[in-house]
Write a structure and sequence with these properties.
single chain, about 450 residues, alpha/beta, Rossmann fold, 2 domains, 7-stranded parallel sheet, globular
Length: about 450
């Protein structure tokens, strides 16, 4: 974590449970980020918090420390049954829930607190069994969580702490009815703590907070801009047809080690992935209809460096903490200012530097004024040199060594040049076997051609 995003507040200054403090030390967390230093003194007292800070600044650690310390230092409610959770953390996307669970297991490694990760798309019976056996903390997406709740697998009677992460995204994805349903079934607001965190706190989010939380304190990390300071932003104005050669040339000039290319539709993701793979890149495509197991495996490969480029819709714009993403390309300019902020927030995380390059084509350029108004600044415009519009020659075959021995169906989630076009190195035995067979069929049926010819 870069020095300049840390404060002079140390975790050891708080009266944390020793087992929790040990987990933080093992993770290398000694000094707080601004949002942690601002919210922890309030949250550790058991008070409700609505916290706002830029993406990638440590909000997850802030609420995990507050929740874990509460569970370790206070007894459970007397009415709690063995399979009733004591804390509930909800997130709008599966990827964000997975990331929170990963951080929770790292920070809470010595605490003995049991976590359950609940989200749709995988392991229905396994997750149900895990909840039936009981846990201390549920980390979940709303839909699958309510499914189990309505089956009476567990109850909310003993929930002492409730966390809503990326609350504004809950509205965007249509989960707000589920969130309100949950809040109405929790213990009274005086008996539990509620923590609400987001990169943006809109009026509708604050209305939710004041309706269901117990006199929440709004805490905002003040910054000069909505976007991360160390993201170098620039925008090009290509035509729709010029975007592919422009992207290919920029990739060749920057030679990024790990980059994300954002598009607005699944069809665009497929098209861009195919073109990039033909030019020798190992590419992964991530959209909403990719099965969850394949999503996770693709993200693991991307983090390990086995996949060079990730082409994604907004499913990857929030909740993914992938270190060392050097470039974010908005191949399609988003139509919403918040989506722009979260997309470019995939780079320059926790004080690192990064580049965000956007294409304002004739199809999406009308979104640019609203984006600039939202972020409170003009994005520097780059002119397009003629050289940038000349499609580069393919760089050769993509490196596929990382995928050797993979037992998945071809092209399920990653592609290279070999999977984008038929191989030019077909076996000579196959060709020689096929051609004589056709000749033999023609010789055996000499009349068939004459019989089928039209009369002259």
């Amino acid at each position: 974590m870069a020095e300049h995003v840390l404060t002079d507040t140390f975790f050891e200054q708080f009266d944390l449970h020793p087992l929790l403090a040990q987990g933080l030390t093992d993770c290398g967390f000694t000094r707080c980020t601004p949002i942690q230093a601002l919210t922890l003194p309030v949250a550790l007292e058991g008070r409700d918090v609505a916290g706002q800070a830029q993406t990638g600044t440590g909000k997850t650690c802030a609420f995990l420390v507050a929740v874990f310390n509460r569970l370790l230092t206070q007894p459970a409610m007397p009415e709690r049954r063995d399979n009733d959770p004591r804390a509930l953390i909800i997130a709008p996307t599966r990827e964000l829930a997975i990331q929170i669970d990963k951080d929770a297991r790292a920070i809470g490694r010595h605490t003995g607190l049991r976590t359950a990760l609940i989200y749709g798309g995988v392991d229905y019976d396994k997750q149900r069994t895990q909840l039936h056996e009981g846990c201390d903390v549920i980390i979940a997406t709303p839909g699958r969580l309510l499914d189990y709740y309505k089956q009476h697998v567990f109850s909310f009677r003993a929930v002492e702490a409730f966390v809503i992460d990326e609350a504004d995204r809950m509205f965007d994805l249509g989960f707000i009815k589920d969130v309100r349903y949950l809040l109405r079934r929790l213990p009274p607001r005086e008996q539990r703590q509620c923590l609400l965190f987001s990169a943006t706190l809109s009026y509708r989010v604050l209305e939710l907070a004041y309706e269901h939380m117990n006199q929440p304190q709004k805490l905002t990390v003040e910054t000069e801009s909505v976007t991360a300071d160390r993201v170098r932003q620039q925008v090009f104005f290509p035509s729709k047809e010029e975007k592919i050669p422009l992207l290919l040339n920029l990739l060749e000039r920057t030679d990024p080690t790990r980059s994300i290319v954002f598009v607005n539709t699944k069809a665009a993701a497929e098209r861009v992935t195919q073109r990039l793979s033909r030019h020798g890149y190992v590419v992964g495509a991530l959209s909403g209809d990719v099965p969850q197991k394949k999503r996770q495996k693709l993200l693991e490969r991307f983090q390990k460096g086995e996949v060079q480029l990730l082409v994604a819709t907004d499913v990857a714009a929030r909740g993914l903490h992938i270190p060392d993403v050097s470039h974010v390309f908005n191949y399609d300019l988003p139509q919403d200012g918040e989506d722009y902020v979260h997309r470019i927030g995939r780079t320059a995380r926790l004080g690192a530097e990064g580049d965000a390059i956007s294409f304002a084509c004739d199809l999406y350029a009308m979104s640019l004024p609203d984006i600039e108004q939202y972020i409170g600044q003009k994005i520097p415009v780059r002119s397009i040199d003629a050289e940038l519009l000349i499609a580069p020659k393919p760089r050769g075959k993509a490196l596929q060594a990382a995928h050797e021995g993979d037992d998945e169906e071809p092209g399920a989630e990653t592609t290279g040049k070999e999977s984008a076009a038929p191989s030019s190195e077909a076996s000579p035995h196959t060709d020689s076997a096929a051609r004589p067979s056709r000749k033999r069929r023609r010789r055996r049926n000499p009349r068939s051609r004459a019989a089928s010819a039209p009369n002259s």
